[in-house]
From TrEMBL:
It comes from Luteipulveratus flavus. It holds the Pfam family Methylase_S. Keywords: DNA-binding, Endonuclease, Hydrolase, Nuclease, Restriction system. Belongs to the type-I restriction system S methylase family. This is Restriction endonuclease subunit S. Signal peptide: none annotated. The methyltransferase is composed of M and S polypeptides.
């Protein structure tokens, strides 16, 4: 099937939102506005809508109308560039900021455009056209020139109806998987709280202690532009490498270290690393360094804990995982711009039980068995999630290649595209 393809600007108004300015943080015409943080893959996220001062004349330019599509103009994550959502008038008199681009078309069924842009964004199609280092910018002009299919309006509506029937089933499966993941997270928390109870319920032979008394706490080395190059480039771990009970080595950075400094911050097997800065729920996310990668240091986005001889590193890891899931680290945090910070100073006085070593070994063994079962179930959900994402891309690809018919042949086409 062949549809006419035209630049987006031929069939739509494409406008960048209004730039923020300190002078507009207050005024007598404060209006709600959307920004990139309000756009999610499943729709608009309206729990945290900001306001700023817009004059009546500015509102004539930047007011959102039902049927408008808003797309993320920039993102630090390549896969988020151009992420779209449909505005249906959820908030009266709402505008938009310049982290979003608005597309307004009278020639298209809005949901057809929404799904088309979602298809491009999900498959990374906007990324090669984006610009910037660290932050990827799509740009109004580049989006305005984007080649856009223009089938007849009845055909657009037919495609949307068939497409949304398929997507609704994928959405239901995704919701089921999300609920299953939440149940597994609750199981993990319950397991950790059972193995390591609150301080008021420590067994008699457990010694009440603090993190500082159970081991040595140290913040990593601060990064500096002067160390981006040098004669002694060495690898280091940062917060992006440390997940719960797992160190991700797919993207390990390097910087210059003099010999003494590198030796001071070099990791040894048995060190426990905790995220110093994170979202509040994941603050203090810990992992045990087991020697991989070798000869690596760490930066000040991480805190290192070295256990004393009467504390097993594996037991310390469980204590910190327990505290993260129980929200104990969150209670000690300082939050700046939505990122919570723990700091070595606030970590040190947090309670840390010290059972006899044999008891620690038994707890570690029990935890390994019970948490491994949960991890296997989480792995199954991850596999199902990846399968669902591939099917979603395939459904969209079938729709915008004109191959969705609304009959049993759709399943064959979707499977073919999912495995392509």
């Amino acid at each position: 099937m062949t549809w006419p393809i035209v630049p987006l600007t031929d069939i739509a108004e494409v406008r960048l939102g209004r730039q923020r300015s300190p002078k507009n943080h207050s005024g007598d015409q404060m209006r709600p506005y959307l920004r990139a943080a309000n756009v999610g893959w499943s729709g608009l996220l309206l729990d945290d809508v900001k306001t700023m001062n817009f004059s009546d004349a500015e509102m004539d330019t930047y007011r959102l109308r039902p049927g408008d599509i808003v797309l993320s103009e920039a993102s630090g994550s390549p896969g988020e560039v151009g992420k779209p959502a449909l505005w249906t008038g959820e908030i009266d008199n709402c505008a938009f900021q310049n982290t979003l681009i608005r597309v307004r078309s009278s020639a298209h069924e809005p949901r057809f455009l929404l799904h088309y842009f979602r298809y491009i964004a999900l498959t990374g199609g906007f990324l090669p056209s984006s610009r910037g280092v660290g932050i990827n910018h799509l740009g109004r002009a580049r989006l305005a020139s984007w080649p856009t299919p223009v089938p007849e309006l009845p055909e657009q509506k037919r495609i949307v109806e068939i497409l949304e029937d398929h997507l609704s089933r994928l959405d239901a499966a995704a919701e089921y998987m999300a609920a299953s993941r939440r149940r597994l997270t609750a199981m993990k928390k319950a397991t950790l709280l059972e193995l390591i109870p609150d301080q008021s319920r420590y067994p008699r032979d457990w010694i009440p202690s603090t993190v500082a008394e159970a081991g040595t706490v140290e913040l990593g080395r601060q990064r500096h532009p002067d160390w981006h190059t040098g004669s002694n480039m060495q690898p280091y771990l940062r917060v992006a490498n440390v997940f719960e009970d797992r160190i991700d080595t797919t993207d390990v950075k390097e910087m210059h270290w003099d010999a003494d400094t590198f030796e001071r911050f070099r990791l040894r097997p048995g060190d426990v690393l905790l995220n110093e800065g994170q979202t509040p729920e994941l603050l203090g996310r810990p992992a045990l360094y087991r020697g991989v990668p070798a000869n690596v240091a760490f930066t000040n986005s991480l805190i290192r804990f070295k256990a004393n001889p009467d504390v097993l590193p594996e037991f310390a890891l469980l204590v910190f995982r327990r505290h993260m899931h129980a929200g104990r680290f969150k209670r000690e945090s300082r939050i700046t711009t939505n990122i919570a910070h723990l700091s070595a100073t606030r970590l040190k006085p947090i309670e840390f039980p010290i059972p006899p070593l044999e008891t620690q070994r038994k707890i570690v063994e029990s935890a390994a068995s019970r948490l491994a079962r949960i991890s296997r179930l989480e792995g199954s959900i991850d596999h199902a999630h990846a399968r669902g994402a591939a099917l979603r891309r395939a459904v969209l690809a079938a729709a915008f290649s004109g191959r969705l018919k609304g009959d049993r042949t759709d399943d064959e086409v979707i499977e073919e595209l999912a495995h392509a």
